[in-house]
Every structure is written in C-alpha cells, then in structure tokens.
C-alpha cells in the first residue's frame, strides 16, 4: 500500500455522470482531498468522447443528458476544486489505420504508446453485448476502429493533461474500460501514482469505497495481499473472524446474500440429476460467466490452461470418452441464463456427442450444493464454487484465473498431463488446512477491515428509494433539481425516454456472432 503525502497535485477524471454511484464516489473523494489541503483538478469527459460504456452507440441525446447532469453533480465540489473539460487540453483527433484483425486475440495485441487499447476496447464491448466471439465483418470493423481511434486520441490528450498538470496522483473509476484505461496505462508508464476506485455492497447494505494503488480492481495478486492484510490487521479476535468467515460459506449455501447475488433461490435442496450413478466416479464441473473476465489483462489470460471454457470441457470429455467409470456433471452458471450466444448454448450439445457428461442448465432447479457434496472432486474455471467446494472438503482443480488463484486452496495444473493425473487420482485429497479459505471468505464478507477501504465520506453517494406503483425508483442525494432528488429523477427519466425515440445514434453496435 502506498501512503500519500499531503499538499499534492491530484487529478480526477470522470467519464460519465449517469454512471452512479461511480460519479458520486469520485466527487466525494475530490472533496476529501481538497479538505485536507491538496490541489485538486476535476476533469470531465463533457462530450469529448463519441461513445462510452453508458452510451456505446453514441446517442447524441444521451451524451447531452450526461453533460447536463455533469453540471448538476459538479455543484457538489468544493470551491477550491478546479473544474476542467478534457477538451481543454487537446482537441485534435487523428484518424488511425489499423491492420485488418481477424479475431479478438488479434485485437488484444493492439497497443498505442504503451496503452493496451485492444484489451480495453474488448472489455467494454463484451461488457455491453456479452458476445465473446463476435463476427468480425465490415460492420464490426467500422465500429471497433472508431473505439480504437478514440483511445488513440485519448492517449494523446491524456499525455497533454499529464504534461500540463504534472500530477502527483491521478484518480479514476475502475480503469478497465476504453474510456479511461488509456489514462491508467499512461500513468503506469510515466511512473505517476494512479488510484482506481471501486465500490462494494449496495445489496442489503450501503455502498463502500474501495481503492487500488497502481493496479486495476481485478488484479489477483493485489487482492490476495489485501485478503491477508484484512485478516491479519482486523480488530476482531480469531474466534470472531472465523465465525464471520464461516458464515460467508453458510450463507452462500443457504441462499442468503453474501458478497454477491443469490443464484440458488429456485433450486431444490437434495435434488440431483436423474441419471446420477453412485457406482461411477462422479466429477462436478462448475463453469463461470466467461464474458466477465474475457479481457482483463494479459496476466489474467496467461493463467488459463485452455483458450476457452468450452475448449477445456471438450478436451476433458474427449480424453475420457472411452472411460466408462468416470462421469462428469456440468453445472452451467445461472448467470448465463439469458445469454443467447454459442459459448453458452453449445454447452447443451456436449451430451449429444459425449455420453460421459450430464449438462445441468443455467435455470435448472437441481441443487448446485448437492452436486458438490456427492461429487468425488470439483473442476472450476474461476467460479466462487471452487473456493466454496474447498471449504466444504472437496478436492478442487482450478483451470483459470480467479480471486483465490494464489490462495493455495486448490490444485492448479500447469499442463494437461498434470490435469489428467489429478482427475485420475481417485484418492485425491482436499486441502486439509481451511485457513486460507477462511481468509478469503472473511475478505468477501466483512469489508470493515479491508486495507483499501475508505471509511471517510464528504458527500453521501448512497441512494434512497421510493416506490411508485410497481416501480422502485433510485434517487442519488448529489443529483438534485430545485433541491429535489425526485424532480431531478423525473426530468432525467423523461429525457432518457424521449432520447430513445427522437435522438439519433452515431453507431450501430455489432452483435452478430462468429458461428464457425
């Protein structure tokens, strides 16, 4: 962790005022630094970008609404905070030609002045569409090139910003997506401390602010270190820590919110697949939402044993197709229920080719935890079920990056031969020491002692709710018109509704899939 000096020059960059509580957290942090005497510059997109995560089609009306909301939100800043538009640093946007790419792997290789613009563009595109294997035709090429060109312009503009402001610290939200990843990469390349913010909670508790110094929030090594720091520096005694950690796993198993949404509410306890055969070696496979981590960074990609999850599952089934003593049960992650792309749908065709697998659908009422309990061992691609299975005493084989990758709670084969050895071992032992599963469970559940949490707030960024008929309306306290959150929300929602009908979009988001 980096401890910052006082009297610093700090630059904040906000990409969108309609992305909340993200915008509110940046406003709050800017005020906090200003109150401790730092020189703060708050820079906003203010229609510099054509598209962003909240406006991927470049709807001109939505861009205007965001810009007007900016004015409302920026009123909450301290008078000492200097407000600037990104265009004040650089206005010239250049046209760049890129080699004709044929796959997402080709796009990942594209960078500009050290900025991983290909990764950032893919990360944003997949977040919006959930399409991890797009058809790269002329329509896709035109859309994606516009994003890459925007990133090139952003890098040049951010460099001007850095040269002019000479900041000691740059602050932005998340940093993974194309509208701010270039700034993150530039700071790393220029040895400028960069802080990426995230939030947690917001389900049954208030949002909390988290920050990551010179790292993206998905950095696995940083999160591992934070998990151990959280445990070691906690003011809770060992007994309380263990009780809280255990409650994480018990809550998850019993369908109670614990660090994530509940996925098992429609499942029936005790229900197994109808073809479950105790005379065979039954091995559970829990996949995950592959789109969530498709383009985090190169380090994350390098941790995967297979190119994709379906390639991995096919490889395992192919290797054991003649072995009638082994049967695999694939539990499709419930978060894929509404995904209609092939990386989800093709999973259901596996049982047509391979007799050694049973596929349990994303919306099936078969119990995930009963599959885990009755399986000989568990194979995962990063799902939290890997951590949970290890806690509940199952040997776990992890084939991709995950937040518990470095926690020493599961087997991680470095080759396919190592994988076959682990699967073949009928007496493979679970990790006997549960301490590290408890450390991670505590980290996920109890956020009070995380080393990267910021308890102090200057601006309330937590929403309140009102219910009108069947609608639950979310109101943020820093967005008001005539001193009323409700009036702002009313005007905002009407504007968004009209915008969808009367305002034109600059781009059409390509959603076609490559089915070859």
Describe the protein in words.
It is a single chain. The strands form three sheets. The protein has a seven-stranded mixed beta sheet with strand order 3-2-1-4-5-6-12. It has a five-stranded parallel beta sheet with strand order 9-8-7-10-11, sandwiched between helices. Strands 13-14 form a two-stranded antiparallel sheet. The protein has 17 helices and 14 strands. 37% of the residues lie in helices and 14% in strands. With 516 residues, it is of the alpha/beta class. Helix 2 (60-74) runs antiparallel to helix 17 and helix 5 crosses helix 6 (181-189). The chain has helices at 22-35, 60-74, 104-108, 117-129, 138-165, 181-189, 220-233, 238-253, 298-301, 309-319, 342-345, 350-353, 368-374, 384-391, 416-424, 435-445, 485-502; strands spanning 9-14, 39-44, 82-85, 169-173, 193-200, 208-213, 281-286, 326-331, 357-360, 377-380, 396-398, 453-454, 464-468, 471-475.
In short:
With 516 residues, the protein is an alpha/beta fold. Helix content is 37%, strand content 14%. The chain is built from 17 helices and 14 strands.
Keywords:
single chain; 516 residues; alpha/beta; seven-stranded mixed β-sheet; 17 helices
Share of residues in helices: 25-40%
In percent, how much strand structure appears in the residues? Answer: 5-15%
Name the poorly predicted regions.
none
Largest sheet: 7 strands, mixed
Walk across the major sheet and give the strand order: 3-2-1-4-5-6-12
Q: Structural class per helix/strand content? A: alpha/beta
Overall, the morphology is: globular
**Distance between the ends:** 46 Å
Q: What's the Cα radius of gyration?
A: 24 Å
Number of helices: 17
Mean pLDDT: 93
Number of strands: 14
